[in-house]
Amino acid sequence: MSVLAFSLLALGVAFVLAITRAALGPTPFDRVLAVNTIGTLAVLAIAVYGFFDGRPEFLDIALLYALINFIGTIAILKYFRFGTLGDHPHSSKKDKSE
Amino acid sequence: MAGFLVNASLIALLALIAILALRLHRLFAVVMLSGAFSLVAAAQFVVLDAVDVAFTEAAVGAGISTVLALATLSLLPAQEKPHSISLVPAFLATLTGLLLAVAVSDLPVFGDPKAPIHNHVAPEYIIGSEQAIGVPNIVTSVLASYRSFDTFGETLVVFTAVLAVLLIIGGYTRTPQKPKKAKRKTKGSQNAG
User: Could you give the 3-state DSSP secondary structure of residue B79?
Assistant: First the structure.
């Protein structure tokens, strides 16, 4: 019981640290990493809170969050790699012509 | 007590993220913080036993809307324009928040059997729905018979939304085709002439 309470507390501290990095982070990659960390922390918080509350039935929600977090990170990185999301055939032609 | 502490710290985290997002002027950082806000809000909803709302918040708030905001960001400048704080909207938002906070104290306690929602039509459905409708499952009879028009409207809304999304992202984009344009121009000139 106390172990779970302590891990919840530690997760809270980690949340604050990650949010600070997301707000301060000088480069965009700091922010991407911070938001990814916040997502992982949310997954962990849901799992730990389930056992802390004595009802670990919602563990599958934590799995869903892990998947969504992954998709979000992929989208952000694609935005950085290509500058846009999705392929715009005539906009890319414009870029080439200009 | 522990539940109260968890709730309070999650709310404090949400307020912290919101204030930071307001203070920042780099739009990318604001998008990132709004994604973090949605994830923390989803964790809060799980703690409050609203699991379906948490699902929606995680899928829409943290997933799709972050992606959409990024797609918008690729068309916008990276920095927010400097502007001063306007007082009237701030006053209105504070007033609404205070009114909501006052209204929360009038809500019935969670799981209270005497709450209006448990005493309005629910007993009637539980007792009489099988004879009136003939469907043994109460939820099905409520959705498909008592609220059939509501369900029909919802289905229409979802169908329209799916159609709109398919039309927007499904490849039906206008591609500039030179010969067609020329034809249109000649037609237009003929009509004008």
Answer: strand
Q: Which amino acid belongs to residue A43?
A: V
Domain that holds residue A43: 2-86
Domain for residue B110, yes or no?
A: no
Q: Are A28 and A80 in contact (CB under 8 A)?
A: yes
Beta bridge partners of B26: B79
Residue in A68, A93, A97 to test binding to B, most B beta-carbons within 10 Å: A68
pLDDT tens column, B80-138? 777 777 889 989 999 999 999 999 888 888 778 888 878 888 888 888 888 888 888 88
What is the token pair recorded at A46?
Answer: 């849901």
Q: Contacts for B100-106 with beta carbons within 8 Å, 24 or more apart?
A: none
* Amino acid letter, B48: L
Domain of B75, in residue numbers:
7-80
Indicate which CATH number applies to the domain containing A55: 1.10.287
Find the CB nearest A19 among B36, B67, B73. Answer: B36
In a domain, A44, yes or no: yes
CA distance B130 to B24: 58
pLDDT in tens, B18-51: 988 888 888 888 888 888 888 888 888 888 888 8
Give the closest residue to B39 by CA, choosing from A45, A17, A20.
Answer: A45
DSSP state letter for B82: P
**pTM of the model as a whole:** 0.69
Of B24, B33, B55, the CB nearest to A61: B55
Considering its fold, how many domains does chain B have in total?
A: 1
Chain B residues within 8 Å of chain A (Cβ atoms): 2-3, 6, 9, 13, 16-17, 20, 23-24, 28-29, 32-33, 35-36, 39-40, 42-43, 46-47, 51, 54-55, 58-59, 62-63, 66-67, 70-71, 73-74, 169, 173, 175-176
